[in-house]
Amino acid sequence: MNRNFFIYWTFVLCLVVEGYAVNYTCTVNPDGFCIFQGVRITSVEEANDVDLRAPSYDLTRIKFRESEMFVLPSRIYSTFPQILELRVWWQSLHSIHIPSNLLHLDAERNRINTISYDTSTVPMLKKLELGHNRLKSIENISYFENLEFLDLSHNDIRSIDLVLFQRLKHLRVLDLAANNMAIVKNSMEHKLESLAVLHLNDNRLSYLDINVLRQFPNIEKLDLFNNQLMYMEFENMRSMFPKLSIANIYGNDWNCENLAEMIIYFKKINILEYKLYSVLKCRERAVDGICCSEGKALTILKKSNQYFSNYVNELNLHSQHIMQEMKQSKQEIRKLIEHENMTQASLKAFSDDMSAIRNRIESIAAITDANNGSSTAIPRQTKKHEKVDKLVQEILKIKQDHQSLARENQVFKQQIEGYEEMKSIIQELKQENNNLRTKLAKLLDDFHEIKSVKSVPTA
Ligand SMILES: *[C@@H]1O[C@H](CO)[C@@H](O)[C@H](O)[C@H]1NC(C)=O
Ligand SMILES: *[C@@H]1O[C@H](CO)[C@@H](O)[C@H](O)[C@H]1NC(C)=O
Ligand SMILES: *[C@@H]1O[C@H](CO)[C@@H](O)[C@H](O)[C@H]1NC(C)=O
Ligand SMILES: *[C@@H]1O[C@H](CO)[C@@H](O)[C@H](O)[C@H]1NC(C)=O
């Protein structure tokens, strides 16, 4: 009795815990956003227990305000299947999932380091604002092929290969400001015609080969201010970027001679916006209100610039090569999978045949058994012969099938071996690439050293 009582209450308690959910209801604002307020989620488990309520569930715009969420409520996208716009600003999110129908996500000022997406279809997202987060690795961005506006400023990206944006054929604005970037690489093979605005300001660039931006022929605005640039080739800028009209370059460590020539060139080609304001006081000198220094001879800078750009080019070629290899191995894998499917299908047909034959053997055995000692043995005997002939034929056919299957498997095995080989080649290439990277980092150090020598007072 006591025991039953206990079991009963355990059961009831389980039901209550199971049914426990925290419910939040949003209110619709005149601007069309339904706003959730004060949502608290401190773990992934808690996110499963949150139910979102709304005056209607065909809402397209959702906003969270004054909330503290580790992740979004798990059911948010199934609750609002027609969502187009989501704003989750300043909410301590650590990761974000972007469903394929969403058009605009503003998730600035969180702690996001992971962006996941629905792998089944190409996301429709057009505008993504992820400024002030903790992104280090942004490979997944390359799947958002419909992006037009991408803000990744104030993250921790450090070094970037612009090839990541190759597939974003509609991208107009790319903001990579304030990311601790020391190097910008570009192993893109095709031009990205859509890009008009590129922010690279407030990084740690001490070197920029302007040629890495060659794949953005329609660029109109280029922000390079607040870096540590000393020298830049500018002579081909007009032919590379016929539409360029704003090129902010202030707040760098320009060599005065290079800067003076660059400003003359800018004026000549009608780039009239290259600074936000004129500085009043510089450590050494100013040219046209932009600080510069006389320290290092221009020829030395030019030379090291050339040296450096050769290395970066080599690195880019390597990246391209690796990408090519990857593409090939992807195709190989696809072929192998197709082949495996075929083999699977043959095996299935084979086992179907086998069971058909077995049925036949059994029925023939039954006939012979029934025949034993029977008076009508002779006509049955000829029937039996027919059956046996058929059986022999079937077995022959199975043998042939089996042989061709074995051959197929042999080919399949060889292909897999080839794939293994390719994998090791790619591994080697990766290693080489890493070595180059290390060399590059060392060069960067040397470069910084050259720069620091500059600050020794000139006689
Ligand atoms: C939330 O709603 C569910 C389902 O209607 C209910 O079972 C649960 O008790 C509610 N929770 C709170 C805290 O109101
Ligand atoms: C990239 O996206 C995949 C698929 O959505 C996800 O599993 C993975 O965690 C993401 N990686 C990063 C670094 O965001
Ligand atoms: C192989 O078979 C699987 C499952 O039967 C299927 O999902 C997949 O699409 C097939 N792949 C190809 C390339 O036919
Ligand atoms: C069938 O006949 C053979 C020889 O005529 C005999 O040895 C055997 O036992 C018989 N089998 C049955 C099941 O009657």
UniProtKB/TrEMBL annotation:
<keyword id="KW-0732">Signal</keyword>
<keyword id="KW-0433">Leucine-rich repeat</keyword>
<dbReference type="InterPro" id="IPR032675">
    <property type="entry name" value="LRR_dom_sf"/>
</dbReference>
<protein>
    <recommendedName>
        <fullName>Leucine-rich immune protein (Short)</fullName>
    </recommendedName>
</protein>
<feature type="coiled-coil region">
    <location>
        <begin position="388"/>
        <end position="446"/>
    </location>
</feature>
<dbReference type="Pfam" id="PF13855">
    <property type="entry name" value="LRR_8"/>
</dbReference>
<dbReference type="InterPro" id="IPR003591">
    <property type="entry name" value="Leu-rich_rpt_typical-subtyp"/>
</dbReference>
<feature type="signal peptide">
    <location>
        <begin position="1"/>
        <end position="21"/>
    </location>
</feature>
<dbReference type="InterPro" id="IPR001611">
    <property type="entry name" value="Leu-rich_rpt"/>
</dbReference>
<keyword id="KW-0677">Repeat</keyword>
<keyword id="KW-0175">Coiled coil</keyword>
